[in-house]
Amino acid sequence: MTERKVIIETGWNLDNSYARLPKSFFTIIKPNPVRSPKLIILNYTLATSLGLNVQALQSNDGIAVLAGKQIPKGALPLAQAYAGHQFGHFTMLGDGRAMLIGEQITPLGERFDIQLKGSGKTPYSRGGDGRAALGPMLREYIISEAMYALGINTTRSLAVVTTGESVIRETEQLGAIMTRVATSHLRVGTFQYVSKWCTAEELRDLADYTLQRHFPDVVADENQYIFLLREVIKRQAALIAKWQLVGFIHGVMNTDNMAISGETIDYGPCAFMDAYDPATVFSSIDIQGRYAYGNQPHIAEWNLARFAETLLPLLHVNQEQAVKLAQEAISDFSELYHLNWLTGMRAKLGIFNEELQDEALIEGLLSLMQKYHADYTNTFRSLTFDTRWDTDLFGTTEFAQWHELWQARLGRQKEPKTASHQLMRSSNPAIIPRNHLVEAALEAAVKQGDYSVMERLLVVLSSPYAHSPEQSNYSTLPALSTRPYRTFCGT
Ligand code: AMP
Ligand code: MG
Fold it and tell me: CB 3.0 to 4.6 Å from 79: which of 122, 153, 369, 383, for a disulfide?
């Protein structure tokens, strides 16, 4: 990829490789001027790692860029076209309220998409207003940064600005724009769009671009498109296992919300599970529980099958052979996912080596957690520190029996108990962005203009494995009266 380097004071060093792809993949758009942008939050460490100057970003000119009012040199704003299966139904979508201003080339030579979300209407807006409200943008900021700190691949949040304009949802709300940073915004839905509405050459262009951008290590003599499919499957298997291990529920795993890079993307109605229950659903629109916690691996596999379908013409000239290759690759998903999950669960229980019965031991604990409505995160914290915070579960004979089996299991490995404890500390977070904590932070921010609650929350969320005394204050469970918690797409 040729890079056009343009460096201004802020440090924007943007290239536009996506704009060099076939024209049908996107629409070049003009910025939508906003009335009076105000910076609400800026991610200093992320800005610095991108090669951006935080002082300059906070100046009027810097903020004007984050609000999509001013375009930095080298930017070529565009809205990406994509399609997607939404709750199983195929639809044409595209960036309806976002624009990609370009790809920032960092001082280390890495490439990151810089996307403004909530920046106004685009040709793909359909009926929408192209805008976003402050609450949901801050929510995405908090949860994506928490995911990053938990060690989970994710898009990140550089900044949130308010626009000085209001957006109408159920009520009138403050308009806001979030700057999202991603290794790319290529989605399963991008391939679905190109496969359905573009030419065979264009599909190859997209696949080649994706390989170059995300999988440059492809070996020349293998079928690079099978490699692409297999690598995407591998990354998703690792990603979804990590979600399950921390109790993250994405909430809207439509194919347009599944990134080819293996990053978690599009934080809409997502939320973390409190009490362990595979049927947990937070999203108000997920009536059937399609995207329930326990269903996420299955849905990921379904989405990957849709991805594989788009690649068929590239996999083999013979259609039957192509289908066979795709099916073989897809059939590896569940095993790959399972291995990632099992490895992660062993670590959560301080187990270093492998025994055949480990899975039964893990399932034994999970079923007791479900039976006694034990909090997922706090149960593992309690096991890590050998405390008994969740009394309902820990007081039972069933748990005592399980605990004995677990202790015996730990005794059958060469590592001492101290090593197990260390492993558990670094595998079981002290803090997750619990729904009521996030709500409290958002309420103070949106209703009172008080950002201090959110800022304190972001600090404790930034080192989830520190197990600091301060974090204990954040581990209390939400009041029963606030449950069941419901999330909304926030569009
Ligand atoms: P999401 O549910 O956030 O993944 O969005 C699904 C689709 O709806 C994407 O094409 C979005 O760009 C589009 N969309 C969401 N909110 C709006 C909005 N307020 N205006 C226009 N398009 C939107
Ligand atoms: Mg989306």
Answer: 122
